[in-house]
């Protein structure tokens, strides 16, 4: 049951964790896996999986809210805080946005200031167990204060940018920020409103639904 003040507008609460993504789950080899930090940086940085796992670990308990209208309470994610990762790279002064790159060609965009907020981490575990491939193993971003499509699965790179550019779903009509408390499901910026907003609202952009855990 939804608790008053805990669930954003238009959401319902589920105890399950629905699995939704675009396309098939990528096959990832940990030996060749890399997390790359590049773009508007003084020097690109990359981590192997063992190097990433050697970074200081943290955990954060949060609710998550999917743009498809479900919410799930009390998720304990474990991984490395975004702020901790950021300490390993020197940004250029104009770096204000991040384009998150994932295996399978998936991307999503976020303002850097949103990634510096409390609870944002690169997670490898959920509720004490390693993430499953369908939920983003070996590494997914967790941005608990935004709609969960912004919490990209299968992360492989963080590209720092001077200007905001749309990611995979944002190019197809989803909001550039995605604040669930403001019901920011669809794009409302001038460039988009003059184009494909109505097509997005009719739901022509389909998720690949892969059941629930």
Automatic annotation (TrEMBL):
Protein's UniProt keywords contain Oxidoreductase: yes
Keywords carried by this UniProt record: Oxidoreductase
Top EC group: oxidoreductase
E.C. code: 1.-.-.-
Keyword Oxidoreductase: yes
Name under which the protein is recorded: Uncharacterized oxidoreductase YuiH
Upper lineage: Bacteria, Bacillati, Bacillota, Bacilli, Bacillales
Name of the encoding gene: yuiH
